[in-house]
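Title: Prediction job returns without error message
Component: structure pipeline
Severity: low
Priority: P3
Assignee: unassigned

Description:
Job completed but the reporter wants confirmation the result is attached to the right record. Sequence as submitted:
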Amino acid sequence: MESILSQVSAWSYAFAAVLHGLFALYLGVAWRRGRQGLLLIAAVVASALWAVANWAFSSSGWLWMFQLANLLDVLRMAAWFGFLLTMLSQAAGDGPDSGLPAWPKPTMLAIVTLGAIGVVCFTLGVPLYGTPLRTWAATALMTAVFGLVLLELFYRAVIERSRWGVKPLALALGGLFAFDVYLYSEMLLFSRIHPVIWGVRGFAHTLALPLVAVSASRNPEWTFRISVSRHVVFHSTALAGSGLYLLIIAGAGYYMRYFGGEWGEALQLALLFGGALFLGVVFFSGAFRARLRVFLAKHFFAYRYDYRTEWLGVTQALSVAGDGLSLGESVVKALADLVESPGGGVWLRDANGCFSQQARLNMPHYGLQEREGSAFARFLLEREWIVNLEEARSGYTPDVKAPLPEWASELSDMWLIVPLISSGVLVGFVVLLTPRTPVDVNWEVLDLLKMAGRQAASYFARMQATEALLEAQKFDAFNRMSAFVVHDLKNLVAQMSLMLRNAERHKDNPEFQADMLDTVRHVESRMRGLMAQLMEKTPINQRKPVMLKGLLEHIVQSKRMFRPCPAFADGAPDVAVLAHSERLERILGHIVQNALDATLEHGSVSVQLSQEGNQARIVVRDTGSGMSPAFIRDQLFKPFQTTKASGMGIGAYEAHQYVQELGGSLTVHSEVGVGTCFEIGLPIAANAQNAGNKAVAD
């Protein structure tokens, strides 16, 4: 035993005991009650106790301490195996269909038992295999090999996209198990404990400890809250990189000196000096250090922000716009909360092509505008750069200098300008006020603000598109209403024109004078109704019971001056429908008028009203020119399609739309040269309301 005692082994295991103890203490503080975390803590604590026992043996030479260390080694391996088995069960899933083989757990119990037996045999001097030392070496070697097998099984069970989190742990444990295989293989072959291998074993376990810590920080489901100092990693990485660089330079210098002949030593000194000088320049370069910090922060640390939480928070803030805050105010609040800013304002593009302040939160109103084609607006669009006005005012010049507008340097309370870009278009920008507490605007803050700015820009773009659509729909509705009004005016003008043409011949006829007064009265009433609709005093869709018999008689009576004179069939039932009386009169009058226009003077136009079940049936039949099936199918009920030279093609379209709106039906039977028959079915008043609602829903 004296051969393995050395200063190296004492320092090795002392170093391992201290670091394992500190790491176990840190894990205990960071533990948040998870089973994997508890087993990891148990494994690290067992490793610390094992290292303490080995250090005590190396320092004192007590044999019983060496035997205790071997028993603790078995306990340590059992703890690591339990941790790996728990991780393996989680990776493979629970239940009989998980695909996890059944042999690892009983094999682990058997291997740990054999390892304990081997230690006991070595302690008591009982040889089960050769000598007591070989017995211990054989059982310990089996334990290390089983650790490698279990580790491979666990690593393969982890899905590929999740291996990033457990790869450092796999490398650490794989290295430790491989080291033990080497140690116990050499012990089994030569029947001795190699003092150097045994002495550096503590250093090997200590070197693997940071990899375990990295995996613990990458796996929050182990319920550890672990963070590593950025400064420690930065300086360690810089020191390791510098050392590696100097080793490469030294190796190249040695090669030059060895093979360079007469010039070898001179080239070696020149290369070493140049390499050291270049390393000094790089080391003292602020830009290099900044880039190294960003690189390490991006690739070696958990991010400052939980992007999932921040994204959900921004989305929630924007989705509740209108609950006391406008969309612009919600955007300002969402961005300001990310960087501890008290508020700000939103500048959006207006109809004049300028970005003006449209919303503000805890910010006074500024009448500042920025032209859409200005250099600053182009810079925001092309670079998507978040401008830090505080840096600009302090004289700091970033890598890309923004062409700041004049107003940006005059307002001292403005801090950051965040562009709002959606689908390659600069929707606007947000100006945030100076934060409540100093905030380091690093790459992560900028990335988060850009992400939130894109999200906000999509909301603004959708809002603007919705407003433009609503405006277009309003104009479309106005144009449609204008078309209907013009169509009605055309019919009223036609009646007045017919009356004036007949006035010269029949002005002394008392009967004509009475008809003329009725016509003027009717036109005046219709025009008042149109004016009321245009002024929105009478809702056009307000429905009331309308008596169809009286309505049709009035329509036929108003057309009695036309030739042929329309006839209304006797014996019509007195049924009512729910409709807007003036609109229903307009569309039925249009159908009758079309029949009169298509029929010669010697022809006939008739109007019939009947009841079939719960439907009122109106038939307008003429002996006019008729229509082709293709025209009825493709053009009749489409707007602005007509066969009349002075027609607008809007009447049949309106009639078809309104009949369907009332829950009715309109069918047309026509033959060219024979005539046309319009059949209109409308639900009578008792069932009109339900039918009409169903038609609107459809």
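Comment from assignee: result matches the submitted record. The chain has a mean pLDDT of 77.
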